[in-house]
Amino acid sequence: MFIPISLMLAGMALGLCLRNVAWLAQVPRAITPTILLLLFVLGVAVGGDSTLMGNLPLLGGRALALTLAGVGGSMVAVLLVRRFFPGAQAGRHAHAAMPGEPAGSPADASGMATAFEDAPVPPEASARSGEEVRPHGR
Amino acid sequence: MGGSLGIICCFILGALCAWLGWVPDYLLGHEATVYVLYVLMLLVGFSIGYDRRLGEILRTLRPRVLLLPLATAVGTFAGSALVSLFMVYSMSECLAVGAGFAYYSLSSVFITQYKGAELGTVALMANIMRELITLLFAPLLVRWISPLAPISCGGASTMDTTLPIITRYAGQQWVFVSIVHAMILDFSVPFWVTFFCKL
Fold this sequence. Notes:
The complex is a heterodimer of chains A (138) and B (199). Chain A is mainly α and 138 residues long. Chain A is built from six helices and no strands. The two termini of chain A are 22 Å apart. Chain B has 199 residues and is mainly alpha-helical. Chain B contains ten helices and no strands. The mean pLDDT of chain B is 87.
């Protein structure tokens, strides 16, 4: 039952203990191929089930209804909490999306102050490193 | 976007191979997915533990940032519970699908195990759709609702697959909020899905 969760916690403990072993930094790279393999195997499981295959359009419609409901609920929740985040009004930071916007501009500062008492990394660098956190599919 | 397409292609390829009968019978059960999931969980845990920035991010965090993952979870559950009134699935089943927060690989294997292949397939499609909606509608969500909207919409995917698009349209100042949001939801997915499947 709880094998997958225990495995994740065990992996975290292992990662914490082995932080100083440099070559293990390559391990997270195995995540993307593993996810692709998992999706392939899931596809095999669905494709081998003829009743499931026959109902795929119907199941897709139900999936869409559930997705839209979940996203809709989240959006209502965002409308309720956005006033606690300075600078989170609609369209207010649309300009910040322009490429070449200087890092550390006033807009940056306000958003950063919302999240952290002292931002450890400049926004520009963090955006880059952020993309490298775990560049894999879900 | 390319990553998501690759993932969908892998799924379709697998379905096609099995449908055409090119796959040996012993792979057809759901055993194989479970073992691949175990490997994946170990790898995901390892990469979280190994990442030095985790401690740094947790130390500098303000409690206010936790409001956003909380809002995403509560909003998703409220929406899923509401739509369950009009669906053939029970409320707890709809909540389990919603609790994937776009983390399709993990949640669909869990749900297949506990609730069967049909709901597992619905969960897989629903959570892939959530990621695609985030990728496609991020600019509009920022303009109409808030820079926080694409982050909330992206669920657990906002520190990897949807981070570039969020950075691009909401602005770089939301990168930390986005990463913290995903870390918390990521970690909570297995707990929520198991919880709702057992209700």
